[in-house]
Amino acid sequence: MSEKRKRATIREVAQATGLSPAAVSYALRGIQTSEETQERVRAAADELGYEAHPIARALASGRTGQVGLLCGSLEDYWQQSLAVGIGRALLARDRYALIVDAGGDPERELALARRLRDQRVDGLIVQPLDPAAALWAELAGTVPVVSIGDALHGGRAQGEVVFDNRRGVTLALEHLRDLGHERLTVFTPTRASTPDRPADVHVNAEAERLGLHVDVVVVPQSLAAATEVATRVLGGPGRPSAVFCFADSIAYGVYAATRELGLAVPGDVAVCGYDNHPMSALLTPPLTTVDWDIDGIVHSAVRLVVDVIDGKPRKRRVVREPSLRVRASTGGRAR
């Protein structure tokens, strides 16, 4: 029987790199050393098979190595992709994502945020259902908080990756207006308890500016629920000529509804989404949608939260600019 290999020590990594054990420890934690040194130390540690004991590391640093990721609703396929990307990006920085799902419920979101704080996560990334909740300012005083999508109440979040929602809404509505649509329905997951989300506010303002008649309808993000609501709206009197969905996952429900009703996309109803999920280009017809560059969002959010945890905050606010991916679902010319 072969003898089990002894766990490599931090001193062996130090000898392999020509650094002191203290410098190696800093590099492995991503602090007080250059990125070049950190990469060199991690490469040597991987080659030697060095693994820091998690309990010892937590006791020494006062950290758990865990970052909470609070998702508004993992029924939304885009948020699923976001969670996968953030989890992998954190793992590459020697952190672990503790992913929880608010299920579209603002009260549950706040309860889970408190629970993550009480579990002593090193930081919290949240895509808030209710950015106006007073709790966010309280949490930010005890744990580093980075928000994705909307700025949080109180302005005390240590990092924000916010979307230029006015621009995103304008791109979609101007595109539909230019194609001759005057009566639109907007499907949004926003609930009555969170009425001040910027994207929804911009819809009304931009519709008035463009001379469009817009009906805003609340739609759950699950495929079955979105299909049910879309079937009711599109099968009733005064059917809109176009639907703008604040999530591609909701647009998938619209597609399912059109098939049930025997309607053609875009001949009978044009459909536009809002987050460019990878599946959207594979639909028949492919979905026109607003693209926020999910890879860029992941990179910015993880960099912000890790930098704050490590005590080296950089730019606190990152604004994501959208682009419109025009495809056949609106009948426009693809680009």
UniProtKB/TrEMBL annotation:
Superkingdom classification of source: Bacteria
Record carries keyword Transcription: yes
The UniProt record lists the keyword Phosphoprotein: no
Q: Which UniProt keywords apply?
A: DNA-binding, Transcription, Transcription regulation
Q: Which GO terms describe its molecular function?
A: DNA-binding transcription factor activity; transcription cis-regulatory region binding
Q: Which Pfam families match?
A: LacI (PF00356), Peripla_BP_3 (PF13377)
**HTH lacI-type domain mapped to chain residues:** 8-61
Can you say what this protein is called?
Answer: Transcriptional regulator, LacI family
